[in-house]
Design a protein that fits this description.
- This protein is α+β, with helices and mostly antiparallel strands and 153 residues long.
- The protein has one domain: Aminopeptidase (3-Layer(aba) Sandwich), CATH 3.40.630.
- Helix content is 32%, strand content 34%.
- The chain has a 7-stranded mixed sheet with strand order 1-2-3-4-5-7-6, with helices on both faces.
- Helix 3 links the parallel strand 4 and strand 5.
- Helix 1 runs antiparallel to helix 2.
- The longest helix has 15 residues.
- The model has no long low-confidence stretch (mean pLDDT 96).
């Protein structure tokens, strides 16, 4: 399966909405999902295509010139463990390096929460060279401890 990672365009909006809907274990808050969809058009964003179908999407936030955050990343469950997430992160990293970014970071549900879906997310980021920096309840509250991962580019 050949994966192309291309810049987000508004014509991908409905496909990205369907992508998020296919991942209720990760994206179960309607207000947050609506914000992710809006942000795809507002932030630097890309979609992963397989056979011209959207199978993944990602967006970054540029907090500082040398530091980008993976704000959103989703891969359709039918395409998990097929290189889609890797291809998207490699594209993000390439874009970041081209702009002189030195650090890429991401927040995800921390290991003190028993959610098995997010355990897979953490394993993915670790396999991509991210290191856990700290876990905190300051971002999302005590029910959703956030783990901050960082990667030097």
């Amino acid at each position: 399966m050949e994966i192309q990672v291309v810049p987000f365009e508004t014509r991908f909006n409905n496909d990205c909405r369907a992508l998020i809907a296919a991942l209720p274990e990760w994206f179960g808050i309607p207000e947050a999902n609506a914000a992710y969809l809006r942000n795809l058009a507002l932030l630097p964003s890309w979609v992963a295509l397989a056979d011209r179908q959207v199978v993944g999407a990602a967006a970054v936030q540029r907090h500082f010139p040398g530091s980008w955050e993976v704000h959103f990343m989703a891969v359709h469950p039918a395409h998990h463990r097929r290189g889609v997430g890797r291809a998207m992160l490699e594209r993000l990293e390439s874009e970041a390096r081209a702009e002189g970014v030195r650090w890429l970071h991401v927040k995800t549900l921390g290991p003190s929460h028993p959610d098995t879906s997010y355990a897979r997310t953490r394993a993915f980021y670790e396999s991509m060279g991210f290191s856990p920096l700290f876990e905190s309840t300051a971002f999302w509250g005590t029910a959703n401890p956030a783990l901050v991962f960082v990667k030097a580019l």
